[in-house]
Design a protein that fits this description.
Blueprint: H1 6-39, H2 44-81, E1 84-85, H3 92-105, E2 111-115, E3 122-125, E4 133-137, H4 138-143, H5 146-161, H6 164-192, H7 198-245, H8 248-258, H9 269-272, H10 297-305
Parallel strand pairs: 2-4
Antiparallel strand pairs: 1-2, 3-4
Length: 307
């Protein structure tokens, strides 16, 4: 990936991210419309009528789910990672590096959290200035030198500054909604088929098969949107960190050390996607890299070395 300037990178990624983000509700509403379309064999009068009736209920249900998940994400992240607060007295070095970077950018300093693990990893989280947090493992703190650790912290600060953490949380929530819908429909098909007459079963099976096929398609699309959204923001955070520290090679060196040493067990795969590196394990082969929310770490290093 060729470096074309930070502001150009920001503008390009923000435009593409807005389009991708708009795709999440569009997929859900499109899925509901397709369900009625196939259910009524394309009779548009019935399709449009039923869709308009269902529309406020769909929007309301999604909205309630979204607000609950959005409000509770910080507690869920702490539970999943077993992180705890890092104060100035706990590690003066980390605190001062973060504070100096924030002062140079005119940013409010986020909270600092630490995970007791030898793995080399870090992530940013939060939805506003009161909840923004940078979490580091003890492994990355102990292994990286100051210029490398500064690059990692700057990368996470750029995620906060560009509201990437908020975008990622939104994408995770929408994927979670569609995943839940798929599970509900699938379980209903398995456990509900024996409770009705044969005639009713044929009708219900057709309805459920239509719903399941559309839900699975919508679920896959939201996953693809999430992957695309996250990968674009990683390049932007790398570029911003290089500009913030005036030292792109520091972050490049950090990524080299992180590569292959980042594996960290957490209680939520969604939280794992927030880390600075969450690609396949060192010995992983096959198509596993295609399903990573981050671009290949080698390409990120190459990108930084071109700056």
């Amino acid at each position: 990936m060729k470096y074309v300037g930070l502001q150009s990178q920001i503008n390009s990624n923000n435009r593409k991210s807005i389009l991708l983000l708009a795709g999440f509700p569009a997929v859900i509403l499109g899925g509901v419309y397709l369900f009625y379309y196939f259910l009524f064999d394309g009779e548009m009068e019935h399709v449009n009528y039923e869709f308009l009736i269902a529309l406020p209920f769909v929007i309301g249900a999604v909205g309630i789910w979204f607000l609950i998940a959005f409000a509770s994400h910080s507690a869920l992240i702490k539970f999943a990672t077993k992180s705890h607060t890092l104060d100035r007295k706990d590690n003066m070095r980390v605190y001062n590096l973060t504070e100096n970077l924030c002062m140079s950018m005119g940013m409010k300093m986020p909270q600092l959290q630490v995970i007791e693990s030898d793995a080399l990893n870090a992530f940013a989280s939060g939805i506003n200035e009161n909840t923004y947090t940078i979490t580091l493992t003890t492994g990355i703190i102990d292994t990286l030198d100051d210029r490398e650790l500064e690059g990692v912290i700057a990368h996470e600060l750029m995620h906060i500054r560009n509201r990437d953490v908020r975008l990622l949380i939104i994408s995770i929530i929408f994927v979670g909604i569609m995943g839940f819908v798929v599970q509900v429909i699938f379980r209903s098909m398995i456990f509900g088929s024996g409770r009705r007459s044969r005639k009713d079963n044929k009708v219900d099976e057709r309805v459920m098969l239509i719903a399941l096929a559309i839900a699975v398609l919508a679920y896959l699309l939201t996953i693809l949107f999430k992957f695309a959204l996250s990968r674009k923001r990683e390049y932007l955070a790398d570029a911003g960190a290089a500009e913030m520290t005036k030292n792109p090679l520091g972050l490049a060196s950090a990524l080299r050390k992180i590569s292959g040493n980042h594996d960290l067990e957490v209680r939520s795969s969604d939280v794992q996607q927030m880390f600075i590196e969450n690609g396949p394990k060192k010995n992983a082969v096959g198509l596993s890299g295609l399903f990573s929310t981050h671009p290949p770490i080698g390409k990120r290093i190459e990108f930084l070395e071109q700056m």
